[in-house]
Design brief:
about 0% strand, 10 helices, mainly alpha, single chain
């Protein structure tokens, strides 16, 4: 009975969710292409499923959260490796082509649109899941994993800005373990008096770092609490 209720709620929620996301996509200027329509459909379906999941008591939430936490280091390393590969490709293309080409062919059509889609779908969804005790661990894990994507997006933006200020800023950032591109981009912006760019880089960097720590702390604490309650109930 619970599974039937879950399915019905998910189906009923999908239509208004998909419509609302379509309106948000129009406001954000996301192109009305078949690929992006499918992305929005998948995101809206995910939101509907999670809300329905909450409505029926978040069945299997604890099992899923524990399973993911057991391999969280592997998932994190895979995400990091994927980001490094994409980052290397971006750096090579900046030297082979230029920063404008990378912006027009990579950042603008893919990264910026994906960031917008995540901000109106996955981030609110993660926060909503963290409100409910039964799905709090999953929400925390989701926020933690999303920090990798947003961190890479910020790094990509910083790379393009650093390259637009001079290739030396890119080289300096790469010398500082690669992630230093974020720092050199902020320094370049400060040198040129573009304090708005400094804020655009610094504020998201702080928020991403806080979200990363907060998400993992919430997930860990919630799973430990559930483990203690399970131990007490069985003893």
């Amino acid at each position: 009975m619970k599974h039937i209720k879950f399915l019905l709620i998910a189906i009923l929620l999908w239509f208004p969710t998909a419509f609302g996301m379509g309106m948000a996509a129009d406001i954000l200027g996301i192109p009305d292409t078949e690929a992006w329509l499918w992305i929005l459909r998948v995101f809206s379906a995910g939101i509907s499923v999670c809300i329905a999941w909450i409505a029926v008591g978040a069945a299997y939430a604890k099992t899923i959260a524990q399973s993911v936490m057991a391999v969280i280091s592997i998932i994190s390393n895979l995400l990091l490796a994927f980001c490094i590969i994409l980052g290397v490709i971006a750096v090579v293309m900046i030297f082979v082509k230029d920063f404008k080409w990378v912006y027009e062919h990579f950042y603008h059509p893919f990264i910026s649109k994906s960031v917008a889609a995540c901000l109106i779908t996955l981030v609110p969804l993660s926060l909503i899941l963290m409100i409910f005790r039964s799905t709090r661990a999953i929400g925390g894990i989701s926020l933690y994993l999303l920090s990798y994507f947003f961190g890479f997006s910020l790094w990509f933006y910083s790379l393009i800005y650093a390259a637009s200020s001079g290739i030396g800023w890119v080289v300096g950032g790469l010398i500082l373990s690669g992630i230093g591109v974020v720092l050199t981009a902020m320094i370049a912006a400060a040198v040129w008096g573009q304090w708005q760019v400094v804020g655009v880089i610094l504020l998201p960097a702080v928020l991403i770092w806080v979200a990363r720590i907060f998400g993992m702390a919430i997930a860990t604490k919630q799973l430990e609490k559930e483990e203690e309650e399970s131990y007490i109930s069985t003893s």
